[in-house]
Amino acid sequence: MSCPKFERLIALSVEGDLDARNAKLVQEHLGECAACRELREELLGSQAVLKALNEDAIDPAVLGAVRRRVLERIEDTRPSWWLAWRWKHAVAVGLTAVVLAGVVLWPERRVPPPPAPAPMAEVREPVAEHASEQRGADPGIERRPVRKAVKHVPRKPAPPRGEPLVVKMLTDDPDVVIVWLIDQNGD
Amino acid sequence: MRELALTMTSAAEASESLEPVTLLRLAKAGDAAAFEQLIVLHERRVFLTALRLLRCREDAEDAAQEVFLRLHKHLRRFDDTREFPPWLYRVTVNVCRDLARSRQKGWAPEVGEPWHVEDPTAEYERREQKRIVEEALGRLPEKERAAIVLRDLEGLPTKEVARILGSTAATVRSQVSSARLKIREFADRFRRRRT
Predict the structure, then answer these.
(1) What pTM value is reported for the model?
(2) For a disulfide at A46, which of A141, A168, B15, B184, Cβ 3.0-4.6 Å?
(3) What is the ipTM of this complex?
(4) CB B181 to CB A47 under 8 A?
(5) Radius of gyration of chain A (CA)
């Protein structure tokens, strides 16, 4: 009958699972106890048979079948290449169709026609009084002062609403330009 | 003009020569051939461990299949800095535990009849001893069986076993010593019945 106190330690010592202190303790006890020596021999025997279980041949076909089932299951859960291809290319074709439709349906760029030239604005400056005398006007008739024609200034297209209208008046004196800024309210 | 020779190999053949770490990284990136090679590298170990834990070949096949499916599902999240085999062992143990519970089989084998010596040849003796030890292994409590399978059959260090089982080294040592004594006692009882 082996010693209960040493049974667990001997069971660990057969596979080298003891620390140095306990290994020495067991070694010393084995030197004195025949029953524990017999227990150790039986444990070595059963451990050798246990490890021999790993030598059991496994049919490679069994492993191959397991591997095949795993790969098939993975493939089943993955979208088919065809579906994946179709999805990606459907998006690409759709985008291309939208772009082509934009090009085909609107072949001409609708550029807004230039605004019609605005009527010329004539701004005349009152001329000197002697001008009417030079023309030999009837002194008895009150005449309107004749304004001297100045350069025709083509009117610029009206600014968009919200922006003030700029009116420039040129005079005989090239250094003098009269500018009006008219806002939305007409001021 | 210089000639350039090209050797074409299949993706599976190309991945066979890769280091396990590289194989793992490729499999993580979605390389199907690399994942298949990963299975080839570990399938025997996973199957044998499952067989020892479940004591049934059909269950072991189902368990091994489930292990690799879980591997595929969680591989992308696996941390490269960790060691792969211990993680795989942990998955195997968990799958076997779940399978055993779902089938309400428990981890104990059916009670075996004492063997009769019909042909006392050495080979027969050896096979019978293996059968007895296998049966003893199947009779162990779940935790002791897992500990001794990983420690003595898979050869993992005690600390590694503790990590896989979510236990401590001291607990694993206690479980392993208890399991070894029980196997030896079971084998001794059968041997004495013969004589």
Answers:
(1) 0.62
(2) B184
(3) 0.76
(4) no
(5) 57
